[in-house]
Protein 1
Amino acid sequence: MKFNTKVIHAGVQPDDQTGAVMTPIYQTSTYVQAKPGDHKGYEYARTQNPTRDVLQAQMAALENAKFGVAFGSGMAATDAIAKLLKPGDEVISTNDLYGGTYRIFQQVFAHYGIRFHFVDMRNVDEVEAAVNEKTKLIWVETPTNPMINIVDIEGIVELTTDKNILTVVDNTFASPYLQQPISLGADIVIHSATKYIGGHSDVVLGIICLNDEAVYEQLKFIQNACGAVPGPQDCFLCLRGIKTLAVRMERHCENARQIAEFLTNHTKVGKVYYPGLQHHEGHNLALRQMKHAGGMLSFSLKDDSIEAAFKVMQKTNYFLLAESLGGVESLIGHPATMTHASIPLEERQKTGVLDSLIRLSVGIEDAEDLMGDLEQALAQV
């Protein structure tokens, strides 16, 4: 089954009782039992829900995995993976990392005796140098947020061979349409399904996909025991969003490519970070492990002041100044004060997250309108 067919049919069947084509929203907290322990596979909605089951099965199919586990947010999914660790364990992660992930690592789990190393994952040798006998997990983000760096998934996976180290890939920026890390050897894939999976900025949800049954059972236990589960309507909204994932991603990517080229040639723009551009250092790697270069890009201004960046962001009309990404609408944001504000200044600056850096989530509007919007906003600087 090819991808465009998977988003419509994989893991999804018409409802047994009614024949409903779309998966029903099972809005219930509990299920009747004929006698104690004699039920139809469902006891309590924190533990199981039919709408959630379908979403988990479909996401696993899209990521070429056996199992899917859904959570109430991407951060709840991150929290569950971190709970696989124990005091004394060590984690290697990219130094260009989503601010919320950095925050939960450093301000929550570091307090429980887990040590985190943040390295430049563009250099596989630097990752290898950080591996030691206490390393239990390598956390990859690619493309990274917000510098849109590309990390060699297969290269990282090779470092973990016979070392009992889990490789986790945050696939949020790519979506399974553009990149399937498990097919490249990763152990676990995580998504903030709030983004491209839902696709309409109307749901908050997280998904983990994997093949290892023992780790899956651990995550299922954490899902039930800790209770950070999504509601059935949120699962339904993600199932709805998945139906158009392939066609949306094609438009996101094409629009982003045009905008990246437009910004590259603009006199007021300093540097554009987009792997679809040939000058991007990860361009060839992106061509190898991704279908297209994605719908996310960042750029800096030649006037590298925060005032100039704020002026641009406050003057756009179609690019809405807001957190998040991956919806049908275009968004503009300022990583240094928004998505990455929880990362210390000196750490942000090491990776290039300067005050003038602007991040775009390119939507599916007409590219000409989006470029015109940026043109008039840049004219204000």
Protein 2
Amino acid sequence: MQPFRKHTGEVVPLDRVNVDTDQIIPKQFLKRIERTGFGEFLFYDWRFAADGTEKSDFALHDPRYSKATILVAGKNFGCGSSREHAVWSLADYGFRVIIASAFADIFANNSLKNGLLTVTLTEPQVAEIMRRAAHTASYRLSVDLEKLTVEDDQGFSATFTMDDFARHCLLNGLDDIGLTLKHETAIAAYESKHPVRPEMSAILPGR
């Protein structure tokens, strides 16, 4: 997993609350077995009409936000089903940070395990970022995970909190596999002292 320390990027506002995972990545696109390739289907039903033509009034199709890597949205972002594909689609599209006043717990946890930073700010702070993103060309924010700050170059500044363990994992690029491999030597030592029973050898190749 790519470590996250500080990211500066353009912002796209999605002024909607209760954005659920079925809208982030509709169910008909969940057949892929890879984690990549989902970005083109992000917010598909909001981005495209039934005949496949683009809906020009949706934020992601606005040329002003074509380079955005930070998404700011309304409260309860990522609610609905637990599909991890929602995070994969956001990351594959190019987003590194999602800012909202509240996130669904499972979505936030899935984001952590995939290197996508979710930043929780107050509703007034989120509203102010949306206002600035809507009225300022190429509006940019700098999100610093080491300092736990969100800032622009126009005077906006906010701090956020994060669980210490979650922050440690993101700063060091550690997903579940990475955390396990940090103990690889101890695991190997344990395994060497506990040989596989004969009846298990047939189902454990190489043991």
